[in-house]
């Protein structure tokens, strides 16, 4: 019989946190063939996992998660999809509002200075 265990994550390390505008975000998803992304707590998020070196794999087993880049877009209301370029590309949103770990990530992002940036091209 197989035994299943869940280990708690002790710490999440993020190298770069970037706020993007929706138009550019959707373009990047289209170019990179990303079919779906995470929606949680008023934002859309892409998580780029750090390189899979032996050391990073060991860290994961020790309860650490490492992301090279986290890109987010403020998107207050959940919808199943977001269309870009007149509907040529449709990006599916996965609603993670009931996943505590992702709600914690969203709360942390909202506490960072980059969340408060008020760029004209952000909607």
H/E element sequence: EHEEHEEEHH
* DSSP, total strands: 6
Categorize the overall geometry: globular
Walk across the major sheet and give the strand order. Answer: 1-4-3-2-6-5
Which residue ranges are poorly predicted, with pLDDT under 50 across at least 5 consecutive positions? none
Tally of distinct domains: 1
Helix proportion range: 25-40%
User: So how many helices?
Assistant: 4
Distance between the termini: 52 Å
| Helix/strand/pairing category | alpha/beta
Radius of gyration, Cα only, in angstroms? 16 Å
In percent terms, what proportion of residues is strand?
Answer: 25-35%
What's the story with the biggest beta sheet?
6 strands, mixed
Topology:
Blueprint: E1 11-19, H1 22-31, E2 36-40, E3 43-49, H2 54-61, E4 64-74, E5 81-84, E6 89-95, H3 100-110, H4 113-116
Parallel strand pairs: 1-4, 2-6
Antiparallel strand pairs: 2-3, 3-4, 5-6
